[in-house]
Structure of CARD domain-containing protein:
Amino acid sequence: MNRPGLAGELKEFYEKEYGASAGGGGAAGEPTGGMCHVVEGRHFIDYHRTALIERVSNVEAILDRLLDKRVLTQQQYEDIASESTSYQKMRKLMNGAIKSGGTKAENELYTILEEVQHYLMDDLKQKKN
């Protein structure tokens, strides 16, 4: 079942869905081009969801940047910031605004985590789970 246009269709879908070239080749968790952060067919943020919830510590700085980028509304910001622990804040952030914001929100969070929690992100890129 070899369709000549299938590869082009898949590439087009991938670029539209993940906002980057489908060019290939980074290590697990590394972008393969542009703003594409895919691990085993899932966005890096989704793939490492549990680890991010458990390990991100500077949530307030992340919330500030997400608010500046308009990923969060002021109300979402206040609701998340009112939680008492980093774990609760990250869980609320991941289950709310990031989930509903889709790939664009995940891309913004990825970029912000690279800035704010660089060592954590490096560690996660080295891991498969």
Q: What stands out?
A: Residues 86-116 form the longest helix (31 residues).
